[in-house]
Design a protein that fits this description.
This protein is about 30% helix and about 20% strand. By secondary structure, the chain is an alpha+beta fold. It has a 5-stranded antiparallel sheet with strand order 3-12-13-11-10. Strands 14-15-16-17-18 form a 5-stranded mixed sheet. A 4-stranded antiparallel sheet has the order 1-2-5-4, with no helix packed on it.
């Protein structure tokens, strides 16, 4: 009888812990021998995924890998930026993309080069360990921890504690599926707490700060917004995180991979049973209070030029196309930071980054240099919140290329609507999965194949009207509209023109309205 995917993966994890594959990575690299197919699955525990062969010549038999590097708290200092740039140029054909978990991904990695890459990363204080696999992933947070002019509280210490608790900890290296945690003290609520497995959001009270606790959020097969459980104190966050992951580890579904996230367990148990179990196992009583008011979706980002906590400096939030940075630009950025004696950048959950504490008198000059590097410090409404997944070039699941399309869409709309002031959340996904979060975007594009004039073509299905905004959050609706690459920019243009005539106060509300009808554009 053939093993199911879940049965196979659970057997692999029982036979050899994912963390124990490291010695095999070094052996494969040194001896240049064929890899055990079962070890290939375990490579994820060290951030390695086999890469799609789309861009690979048939004459090249090399197995290339994507390598994900964890960027804890989104913090990258100058030397780390330089190291990542050098790795990209030397080993990854100049590839380097920021992700929605504040990480960075390389492509074109050869197994024989992995030990050298690991050594360089380790020397710079970076790691790929547990950047992927059935583990607790990188904890997402506000990139401006401790550096925002307006901040509810700095949660850097808590994020450090959570990351340290789970890092290389074999008590938590074999979970039913991945587990995603978020902690935020941001006044703008930039961290997307609604879609994390577990998240803690700071809320100001008269007598101090409490944290709202949410559980069970997710996208793809676990498409649900997180349940609000109540409020806890700062010193209760880490023990609650530990207890929640233990519950997931012990009771999560290991028989069906598409039913194995924490949200599936909460749906099975009910919110009350999960809350009671969490309280019992952690020894912490979760306080019941009214839910806080979340910031409007359109301001839940840190883009453009804005003042820092230091009155003499600014932060510059730079927008990229689908997180695409590249090694050359990382090295150029390092040179720029060195020139102006700036210490670090912070990565965001929207695949962008922020240059911290730029002297006010140098801000305009630095922005000019960024623009020469084709990094936009004045992002338009169409760049600020546009994301894209890895796409067909490198991902085995993708149907279509994504990052160049994201760029094409943004540039086209910027040209057509230069004064459009409302940030539009556009998400480009190469397959029906949700790596770039299309189901919570104003406009989501989900990779698809379909018939056009009797021929099979590749394109995207249009999703509209998604939003992350606390109790007002909503998933996008499928329109059934199927579009090719070339049709998409013009189609979105027509949607915006129609919105401008509609009388609605926001593009997102127009797209989500019952009156919205896309048939006009066909």
């Amino acid at each position: 009888m053939k093993e199911s995917k879940a049965t196979r993966i659970e057997r692999l994890k029982r036979q050899k812990d994912g963390l124990d594959v490291l010695k095999d990575i070094y052996r494969y690299a040194k001896e240049d021998i064929p890899m055990d197919p079962e070890d290939i699955d375990r490579l994820k525990w060290y951030g390695l995924y086999t890469q799609n062969r789309t861009l690979q010549p048939e004459s090249d038999p090399t197995q290339y890998f994507m390598l994900r590097v964890k960027i804890e708290k989104g913090v990258l200092n100058k030397e780390q930026i330089k190291t990542l740039g050098e790795i990209s140029v030397k080993y990854a054909k100049n590839s380097a993309d920021f992700t929605t978990r504040q990480d960075l991904q390389f492509h074109w990695i050869k197994m024989k080069d992995v030990p050298d890459i690991f050594e360089k990363l380790q020397k710079s204080g970076l790691s790929t360990c547990m950047a992927a696999g059935d583990v607790v992933r990188n904890t997402v947070t506000c990139p401006l921890n401790g550096r925002a002019k307006e901040e509810i509280t700095d949660v850097s210490d808590i994020v450090d504690e959570i990351n340290s608790l789970f890092f290389k900890n074999k008590d938590f290296s074999n979970l039913p599926r991945k587990f995603k945690i978020g902690v935020s003290g941001c006044a703008q609520h930039c961290m997307p707490y609604e879609i994390q497995d577990l998240s803690f959001v700071a809320v100001k009270r008269k007598n101090g700060v409490e944290f709202a606790l949410f559980t069970g959020g997710g996208l793809a097969s676990n498409r649900r917004f997180a349940n609000f459980l109540g409020y806890v104190q700062k010193d209760e966050i880490v023990p609650l995180a530990k207890a929640a992951v233990e519950i997931f580890r012990d009771f999560g579904n290991r028989e069906k991979r598409n039913k194995a996230r924490l949200g599936h367990l909460i749906k099975k148990w009910g919110v009350q049973k999960f809350k009671e179990t969490l309280e019992k196992n952690s020894g912490i009583k979760i306080k019941e209070r009214e839910l806080f008011e979340v910031s409007p979706a359109k301001i839940r980002h840190h883009c453009g030029i804005f003042p820092s906590k230091n009155s003499n400096t600014n932060h510059i939030g730079c927008a990229l196309f689908g997180g695409k940075m590249g090694g050359d630009r990382l090295l150029q950025l390092y040179t720029l930071l060195e020139k102006y004696d700036i210490s670090e950048i912070r990565t965001t959950t929207k695949q962008n980054f922020i240059i911290l504490d730029v002297p006010k008198e140098e801000t305009n000059r630095i922005c000019e240099e960024l623009e020469k590097m084709k990094i936009n410090p004045y992002p338009s409404a169409f760049r600020t919140r546009t994301t894209a997944c890895t796409g067909l070039d490198f991902c085995k699941f993708a149907i279509n290329e994504t990052k160049s399309l994201a760029e094409k869409i943004a540039l086209y709309l910027e040209n057509r609507f230069p004064a459009f002031g409302e940030p539009v959340n556009i998400s480009v996904n190469g397959c029906p999965n949700s790596c770039a979060h299309p189901c919570i975007a104003d406009i989501g594009l989900s990779g698809a194949t379909f018939k056009r004039n009797g021929k099979s073509v590749k394109g995207f299905e249009l999703l509209v009207g998604g939003k992350l905004e606390g109790k007002s959050s909503r998933f996008s609706k499928r329109t059934g509209i199927l579009l090719t690459h070339d049709e998409i920019p013009g189609f979105i243009e027509k949607l915006i023109l129609s919105y401008q005539k509609s009388g609605f106060k926001s593009f997102g509300e127009y797209l989500a309205s019952k009156n919205f009808d896309v048939e006009f554009a066909l």
